[in-house]
Specification:
By secondary structure, the chain is α/β, with parallel strands linked by helices. The protein contains 16 helices and 22 strands. The protein has a 7-stranded mixed sheet with strand order 12-15-16-11-10-18-19, sandwiched between helices. A 6-stranded mixed sheet has the order 7-6-5-8-9-21, sandwiched between helices. The relative contact order is 0.12. It binds nicotinamide-adenine-dinucleotide.
């Protein structure tokens, strides 16, 4: 696939930026930095497409989204290759990401009608002479602002669900992964038979935070943001001016808890994968591990052995690729330094593991809870293990974080019970990040991890507004809501209420 010339997507394009691969610096493509006029024009184009897209109904939209899915499968290798080149992640990780995104696209298209269509609800005893219905109607134009770490999976959690619900979408990919964003929109338009995207409900804007800010101020009907909590606050501030609703999918400091009866082999495998796959740049990655004292020695040895064997580099068979953005390398370095300087022990690697843009896996143990390595999102291949007396202490420490995105519990007998004590949006029990690939499960967090949900029925309703309709079926026996009411009517009305609700 050839990436488009920069002027084909922008009305004015006075300024541009270049996307390049993080490992080799390989040139990928040049894109416009869309300014507020460009953004306004593109949002207007998306808005013009809403009517036709909504009129297609659930079935028509499902057919179009199916074509998109099929095209993504036909050009699967091209997409995974581009994801791998632009983020630096190994092809295997790109493959997992794209497969899960396609699964969600399939589910959203196939279930939007069931979840959102008009349905009857009980009118209640007082209004028994009415029919009551609820219908989830599209919002209009949804802005989707995405991060770079999962440039297909993450934005698709909003794009696919918003489109299936009948909205038009304007997508701003991260400035580190614009080519993947372009590919997705281009493939959608090709699948629709509208390669220039003239009447498309899915549009692209490219650029950095200034473009994102312009999008938040462009009077879209909702902003679905995925990124850091710090940027999330800026997005909310911009949206507050026009009371634009927001969905916030922010960072995390997810804990993995290992109980005394855990399958230690499986827990160690999950700990290493959850902490360092995608070079640790995963919002729901394992950022802290709390292991019961009595099994800690064995567990730490197992993790150490696995982590030391991982191959890091740009070669195709590497387990871990580079850190995608230069700023992230500095954050990871600071966290390793802080963890060690406060008394944590490095079992594998250390500060010397940072060889930008690569970071070799680091295993730190017994890191004080006041270290930034424990309290802030590291977003790098650092496996941090702290021993605890028991699972009650583990739960307490896990819940002490400002974030509340996901968590993992390894325990044969008490896994689900421990999961319910954790103040997070998602928990995997004896399995690593399973909820990501279960389209029926809502995805999102609480606290500094944000609010609102993508995926599942909640994810569809996130991009719709309920409209309630109550229609009279036959005249009421009593009519208290009229100035023609008498004292007798009101007396009967009050007696009826006392009779109905007495029990
Ligand atoms: P980021 O906050 O730096 O940027 C995210 C997006 O916001 C980018 O497209 C960026 O251009 C845009 N942006 C920047 N300033 C803006 C502004 N003022 N107004 C509007 N948009 C603006 O995040 P990132 O570094 O791209 O991504 C990493 C973060 O994302 C991590 O914290 C990670 O945990 C989080 N994340 C969360 C989830 C989730 O589902 N909860 C998924 C993936 C990543």
């Amino acid at each position: 696939m050839s990436i488009h010339p920069v002027d084909s997507v922008t009305p004015s394009a006075p300024a541009t930026f270049t996307s390049s691969g993080p490992a080799s610096g390989e040139y990928i493509a040049q894109f416009a930095i869309h300014n507020s006029q460009d953004v306004a024009a593109i949002v207007a184009r998306a808005r013009a497409a809403t009517h036709k897209w909504q009129n297609q109904g659930f079935s028509g939209r499902a057919r179009q989204l199916k074509r998109w899915r099929q095209l993504m499968l036909t050009r699967f290798d091209e997409l995974t290759d581009l994801v791998s080149r632009e983020t630096g992640k190994p092809q295997a990780d790109a493959t997992i990401e794209v497969v899960i995104a396609i699964d969600h696209l399939h589910w959203a298209a196939g279930n939007a009608k069931r979840v959102l269509k008009r349905h009857h609800v009980a009118p209640g005893m007082l209004m028994f002479n009415h029919s009551a219905t609820v219908e989830y109607r599209p919002l209009g134009v949804v802005a989707v602002i995405g991060p770079w770490n999962y440039p297909v999976f993450t934005p698709m959690g909003s794009i696919a669900y918003a489109l299936a619900a009948g909205n038009a979408v304007v997508f701003k990919p991260s400035e580190f992964t614009p080519a993947v964003g372009y590919w997705l929109v281009d493939a959608f338009n090709e699948a629709l038979g509208d390669p220039a995207g003239k009447h498309s409900p899915l549009h692209l804007v490219t650029g950095d935070g200034t473009t994102g800010n312009a999008l938040c101020r462009s009077l879209v009907n909702k902003v679905a943001f995925t990124g850091s909590a710090a940027t999330g606050r800026r997005v909310m501030t911009a949206c507050a001016d026009s009371l634009i609703p927001v969905l916030m999918e922010c960072g995390g400091k997810d804990a993995l808890l290992v109980d005394t009866d855990a399958d230690l082999k499986a827990a160690a495998d999950a700990a290493v994968w959850g902490s360092v796959s995608n070079a640790g740049q995963t919002c729901i990655g394992v950022e802290r591990i709390y292991v019961a004292e009595s099994v800690a020695g064995k567990f730490i040895d197992m993790v150490t052995e696995r982590a030391s064997k991982l191959r890091v580099g740009a070669q195709p068979d590497a387990d871990i690729g580079p850190i995608t953005t230069p700023a992230q390398v500095d954050i990871v370095t600071r966290h390793i330094e802080d963890g060690i300087s406060r008394g944590g022990q490095a079992r594998v690697g250390g500060v010397e593991s940072v060889r930008a843009p690569f970071v070799e896996p680091v295993v730190l143990i017994d890191v004080p809870e006041n270290s930034i390595a424990v309290s802030e999102e590291t977003f790098g291949p650092v496996i941090l293990i702290n021993r605890v007396q028991d699972m009650d202490s583990a739960v307490k420490l896990a819940n002490a974080a400002h974030y509340g995105l996901g968590a993992t519990v390894f325990s044969k007998r008490r896994g689900k019970a421990i999961a319910r004590q954790l103040n997070v949006g998602m928990v995997g029990v004896n399995s690593i990040l399973p909820y990501v690939a279960i389209p029926t499960l809502p995805f999102g967090g609480c606290g500094q991890s944000g609010f609102g949900r993508i995926h599942g029925a909640d994810g569809l309703r996130e991009f719709a507004q309920p409209q309630s309709v109550a229609a009279q079926l036959f005249p009421p026996l009593l009519k208290p809501t009229s100035f023609a009411r008498s004292r007798h009517t009101m007396g009967l009305f009050a007696r009826l209420a006392k009779l109905l609700y007495r029990w």
